[in-house]
Amino acid sequence: MEYHKKYKTILADPPWKYGKGWGYGAGEYYDLMSLEDIKNLPVNNLADENAHLYLWCPNGMIPQGLEVMKSWGFKFKTILTWVKNRSIFGYYFKGQSEQILFGVQGTLKPQDRKQVTIIKGIVRNHSKKPDEQYEVIEKVSPAPRIELFARQKRKGWDCFGNEVESDVQLITNPSTSPNGDFVLRKKEFNKGYEVN
Question: CATH: 3.90.600.10, 1.20.1290.10, 3.40.920.10, 3.40.50.150. Which one for 7-153?
Fold first, then answer.
């Protein structure tokens, strides 16, 4: 059965396609998406009229991340920084941090205003984000929640990704979806980031 659901909290870690010579082999691990493809995802149709967005963005692509946020219907508010336990690749500098752009759609206030903008966590597999992010997000932003481009299921969250059993399938073609947006299908395994 198909039904629509709106989310108060959206966490997204898109597979950014870096400029020529950048990306540090990310394409060997997963398919990458161009800036335009990411911007064209109908995330605004998935979001409640009052919602929070947590958008992981490479340090060298903050301007592009802000473009994505705007195209998804969110206003930029602040940055959360993941401080890593060790440095990794870098072009100009070795990276020891990653950024989450935080945005708001509508007037949703944070549940907890004492949260700091630093997330501390260890570096694990390629591109894997720290589990500590969930504690921060769950403290600050209400359910229902969804993670886009998820690598694992989390209790209390819906998810979309090619490494998990997705709760949401991306549909952006109005001929295949009456509203041209996300359709929820429970227990349907999605093998990739197929955009119709």
Answer: 3.40.50.150
